[in-house]
Every structure is written in structure tokens, then in C-alpha cells.
Specification:
Layout lengths: L2 E2 L10 E5 L3 H18 L4 E5 L8 H5 L9 E5 L7 H11 L6 E7 L6 H9 L3 E4 L6 H14 L6 H11 L3 H14 L6 H9 L6 H9 L3 H13 L4 H19 L7 H8 L3 H10 L5 H21 L3 H16 L5
Parallel strand pairs: 2-5, 2-6, 3-4, 4-5
Antiparallel strand pairs: 1-6
Length: about 325
Amino acid sequence: MATRKNPTDDPLAPLTLAVGQEDLLLDRAVREVVAAARAVDADTDVRDLASEQLQPGTLAELTSPSLFAERKVLVVRNAQDVGADAAKELKAYLASPYEEITVVLLHAGGVKGKGLLDAARKAGAREVACPKMTKPADRLSFVRGEFRTLGRSATPEACQTLVDAIGSDLRELASAAAQLCADVEGTIDEAVVGRYYTGRAEASSFTVADRAVEGRAAEALEALRWSLSTGVAPVLITSALAQAVRAIGKLASAPRGARPGDLARDLGMPPWKIDRVRQQMGGWSADGVADALRAVALADAGVKGGGDDPEYALEKAVVAVARAARPQRR
């Protein structure tokens, strides 16, 4: 989980510096600050900027005193990429910040943009570490922390099974942990995780996803209907579809000729999954991956309350993924 490097842990400190490349942890660092600001002032003005949006003069405009003295949160993403002139203005501001403005800098760390990083630390920034979790042990610790944060007990075997089934994507691990906590009472054990994520092939959300990414639309739809009829949560199916498509995208962009063991380490997948994805990715293209992810995102919104018919939303997504896998059949 994200760790803080200084004893002063006030989200409303004038400056929060989130350092690392793990998107989920960076987003959580931002949300924590915004939530704290809006708890004090519900009308807090939040400005979330990409590095290229912070041009010379932009900072002065955004931090100019308000007629109504409103609280502001200014988020700068990829701060290591901020241009030299804008970075100079930002450094000057950090030396004398305004009381009602909280600045959140998201910085990848490393050499690029180190001058701004050093200036933020010198200014006494509240620092949150958001490193990429490349080691299985780190991801296992993350899952355990998620269950603790959610106030639930999960056995070590359950946590390991969840990591083995899902892989390295922290968003998907966090989503899976939250879903299990919402659906299961009592201690979450290995059997529960297996039932949701690796059990009963006929009713598994992963079976739906496997058939879809293989371009076998009819079989995917059949597996989908069976899964829904046996009580598999729709959100688990969209999660499985997203994982399957992302796995294809990751493997497609990996170096050719790399060994499964090396790929498993670099991509955060079990070796057996590398072999399976290789067999599934024959008809896929970069455009197909993008189209499929958009379709799955729409379905996910539909099953979470954005649509009137979750089953229809899932069917559309399954067909879209299968078509993306076999573009010549469109």
C-alpha cells in the first residue's frame, strides 16, 4: 500500500508529494486530499492538470486569491514532465504557498524533473510513496492490507489464491477484494476465493472471458448465460473480460522471443497464464484491444447501475470482444 515518509500526515498540508508509478496509489493519494478538503469545505474547487496544461502563467491564474476565499486543490500529474518555465514558477510558489490552497504533485521519481522533486521536499511536502509493486510478496501484502482496510479477515491462503488468479493489476486486486467483502460474510478463505475466481469451469466468469477473447462468440454467450443462471455476479464477468483483454494487450507489446518465466515476472502473470494468452492472441490487433476495452468499460458501467439491463450489457460486451478477436469476421 502507499506509505508516507514524514510524520506529519495532514492531507490538508499545503503540499502533498506523491512519488511513484503505481496509478492506483497515485489516484488514492489525490482522492484522500480532495476528500479531506471537501470535508472542510464542500465547495472546494479542484483543478486536476496534466503536466502539459501547466504553462507559464497558469499557476498564477489558478492560485490567485478568490473573491469568496474558497478552498482549492490543485493537482499536477506527471510533474516530472512540467516545462522548465512552469517548473520555475511552481518552485517559487512552493516556497510561499497560500493557506487555502493545497497542491498535490504526482511525480514518477527518478532523475527526470528531479529539481522540482527536490524543491518540493525542501519545502516540507507531505510525501506519499506510490511505487510499482513488481514483487509477488508486495502484491500479497497489498491484498492483505485491502482486507484490513475494509475491516475484514482473510486467510493467508485466500490472499495468495486471489493474487495467483488475478495477477499484478492493483486495481483489479482491489476491486476483487472489495467485491468479496461485499458478497461474503465471515472470514474469507481459500474456498470462497476459488469459488469466485477459479472454481466451477462451467460457471466461471473466466470461462466467459476465455471464450470471448478466443473469438468464440456463441460459446462465450452460452457460458455467460450459464454463469448468470448459477449466480455469478455480473461485475465479476466484466472484471474477467477486462483482465483477459488487458493480458492480450500486455503480451502483444512484450519483446518477441522472451521466455515465459521472464514474461511472467515482467508482466505480473503466472507462467501458465502466459502460455494460455499466447494461444488466445492470434487474431488480435492493437485497435481490437482498444475496441474491446471500450466495450467492456461500457458494460461495467451498465452492470453497476448505469443501464437498465445488465444481462444485455454483458451480452453486447461479449459479442464485441469476440468480434475484436476475429476482425475478419466483422
